[in-house]
Amino acid sequence: MSPQSKALARTLFKLKVHESNGFEFEHLFGRVMQYSRVNFTKIEPYGNQGDRGNDGYEKNEGRYFQVFAPKDPHTSKQAAIKKVASDFKDKLLPYWSKFCEPKEYFFAFNDKYQGTNFPIEKTLAELKKKHSLTVADVYLAKHLEQEFIDLKEDEITMVVSGIPDPNSISGLDYTVLGEVMRHVQNTAHNIALPGKLIAPDIDEKIQFNHLKQSGFWLKAKQAETWQIDEYFKRNSDFAKQALRDYLAGYYADSLIAYPDTIADGGNMGEVRFAAILENLAPASGVPVSDKLRRDAALAIMAKYFETCDIFEDPKNAAARQAY
User: pTM score, two decimals?
Assistant: First the structure.
């Protein structure tokens, strides 16, 4: 499956997650897990007894999953906290432990990418200690997304009911890059997480890459890179790797398109910077929209400049020369 098709499949899956509540999400969860884990058994409710606190399990490992999928996870977290403890203690333990001792318990919470909270984590930790479990943890939408994205191509297609040809879709940005850009644009820029510091060696890296003019933006936007970190916390590892690949690819292309030559003094850093920015946020001719996208793109560039996925790290360069 091409990266473009996989990115589109991921977007379609996220739509399903956001639109699925109750039994719909249980069905989605069960289908992905059955494809992903060969030993996973989905448990269907039985009469008025229901599933007795077990929506699916891996019997050999004693690993149980209990699904909770409210319409609005933000306003239902108190209900989630109550369900974590009650379903395990009052339903699962009295019945299922008679023939399959619980060793691992996962509370599969359709948080719709909002994340968990301290009371849920605390309740699970207490559950783990009280019942001597090996694992008691929350299983969020991002975890199910990761299982989905790692499926075989035909399984991915069946879960999302088909994938259109990305080349036939015009005017829609369904990529991870587009998603992160929108996330940064929609996050207040005047808020910074406490303790966010400027990388101590950023000035050295700016100087080494001949970014005297552009370096100002990279330093200024470092205070906003937490927005991208927050996005990664709520999404699967696929998103993080895909965005890194975008940036690294644009930088590799810029090295080929704008090589250092004697004629320009051996310095094309500023040109490469502009080329990457243009790839991330091409001009549309609408000044207000372009400014918002450029601001978001600069924050993304600052993040990957800091992690050395774009431009050269002086330490690595020195090591190569020594070698």
Answer: 0.70
